[in-house]
Amino acid sequence: MRPVIVMTQTSKFQSDLVEIIHKPFIDIQSLYFDENLLKNNYDWLIFSSKNAVKYFLKYMNLVNYHKVAAIGKKTAEYCQSLDISVDFIPKDYSQEGFINQFSEYNQKILLPSSKQARPYLYDELSKTNDVVKIDLYEPIPNYQHINEVKSLINNQKIDALTFSSSSSVRYYFNEDPIPKFDHYFAIGKQTAETLHSFNQTVKVANKQTLASIIDKILESRDKNEI
What we know:
The protein has helices at 50-56, 73-81, 95-101, 120-126, 143-154, 166-173, 189-197, 210-222; strands at residues 4-7, 19-22, 26-30, 41-47, 64-70, 108-114, 130-141, 160-163, 184-186, 203-204.
């Protein structure tokens, strides 16, 4: 019997190996910003997520940039599906991996992203480059989905709950009551650390992809851990 899992990100990922229930914990609200920032000439345009690409797309023709970098295979593939050429993708799909492999300095960089994005990428790039960060959007909690998932857990309808962002973890655990459950799976070390901050045990995908988290869930099932 296929494990039943809840995926809490917006992607409609599917797999024949598991039964997936999609319940995004986060809705996206676009934000206004000073469009005069687009008048500068930039050496690099850096996207850290598919949402950054999605919400910046309508501004692409308004900004002069030389190269594009993307954090994550899916972000890069999304860019390419929109005919946006990607010049750099780190092997490690994380902000830390990007900083470790991005060797450019004294560059003018445009970084459109979430208002609640981790500051690490901006802070590290700013040490050796001129970085302009645009707050394109911000996540807001979808409490209806959060409560529906808690009901599924209380009724023992699911085998695993996955998280791919720290924001979704915080929205879930900050909303009482919290049902008794210990089959949490995370994409990314930062997401896992946020789960640990709520005193939860978690298994982490070997790679920062949805396919990898499915593999981790199936591995746990084969070990009778879920």
